[in-house]
Amino acid sequence: MLSNNAKSSYGRSSPLWATSQNLPPPPPPPPPPKTLVGVEQAPSRYEAQKRRDWNTFGQYLRNHRPPLPLARCTGTHVLDFVRYLDQFGKTKVHLTTCPYFGLPQPPHPCPCPLRQAWGSLDALIGRLRAAFEENGGKPESNPFGARTVRLYLREVREMQAKARGIAYGKKKRKRPPPAPTSDHAITIGGGHVVNANNMQVQQGMQPGT
Ligand SMILES: [Zn+2]
């Protein structure tokens, strides 16, 4: 725009812009944030989290006794990993025997265990499932897509929804009354501690803990 003004006001004694011609040029746009990878876009939070999750799972496998190569990892191992993560959870899940079972906001603390929230687990499994295939795994052998994992997540969702009085899945159509699940309910309280030396995994998984 200065060039237009310069043309139109050429030769005038005191063009309006004359007093501001020494203004510094506009600051250049800020450089894009540095990225760990060489792509032109910064990795999304999803991508970054996915990478962290994948590293955490790899660490879990390396610490596994007996050794557990990724190629031999099954849905059952994934569930071991997921249950292992429960010890770092921050979501109170009331036992059915707790007087606050089903109350979203209990008036007093209770000794019920803390677990990983279903939403966190669901997102985690989704990221790991994608990462598995991005790292060369075949879709048909993806342990994170195993039926047992899907069933487990569904159980966790229903159990936590009941325990906390929260209705998940509002976006979906109304679900029919819950079918009895006791015959195939998965015990969330299993809490397998596969490896006592878990500090690194804990840090990788729950930075704020
Ligand atoms: Zn409770």
Automatic annotation (TrEMBL):
Which stretches does the entry tag as region Disordered? Answer: 1-39, 164-189
Where does this protein have compositionally biased stretches of type Pro residues?
23-34
Please give the family membership noted in the entry.
Answer: Belongs to the plant homeotic and developmental regulators ALOG protein family.
Q: What is this protein called?
A: ALOG domain-containing protein
Pfam families to which the protein is assigned, alphabetical = ALOG_dom
Q: Which InterPro entries match?
A: ALOG (IPR040222), ALOG_dom (IPR006936)
**Superkingdom of the source?**
Eukaryota
Q: Any idea which UniProt keywords this protein has? A: Developmental protein, DNA-binding, Nucleus, Transcription, Transcription regulation
Where does it mainly reside? nucleus
Native source species: Sphagnum troendelagicum
Bias-annotated ranges (Polar residues) = 1-22
Location of this chain's protein in the cell: Nucleus
Every copy of the ALOG domain together lies at 45-172
Is this entry keyworded Transcription?
A: yes
